[in-house]
Design brief:
Shape: globular
Structural class: mainly alpha
CATH architecture of one domain: Orthogonal Bundle
Order of helices and strands: HHHHH
Number of strands: 0
Number of helices: 5
Length: about 90
């Protein structure tokens, strides 16, 4: 019998948010997103996120340029996404 994968509601919301990145939903202002990125992320998270989403680099390219493993880039981008999501979720629900 196959195992069912149980995920939290927050994980599901985060996945939907990740899929919507880059689509013009118009729900959040660019200014708010940039403010959250500037205030909530470490310098490394901000650099990797910028390279990945805004410069269109692959995680392999980022890892190669920064002399780190692809796994490190992946984990750093995931942490950054979670931080942004939590901050924006709080701002929107207030």
């Amino acid at each position: 019998m196959p195992r069912k994968r149980v995920i939290s509601l927050e994980s599901a919301e985060l996945e939907l948010w990740r899929q919507s990145i880059g689509k013009s939903s118009g729900k959040l202002s660019e200014k708010l997103v940039l403010q959250v990125i500037g205030e909530c992320l470490t310098e490394t998270q901000s650099l990797y996120l910028n390279d990945y989403y805004f410069c269109g680099k692959t995680m392999y390219e980022i890892a190669s340029e920064r002399n780190v493993s692809v796994s490190t880039v992946s984990r750093t981008v995931s942490r950054a996404e979670r931080r942004i999501f939590k901050a924006l979720k709080y701002c929107v629900r207030r």
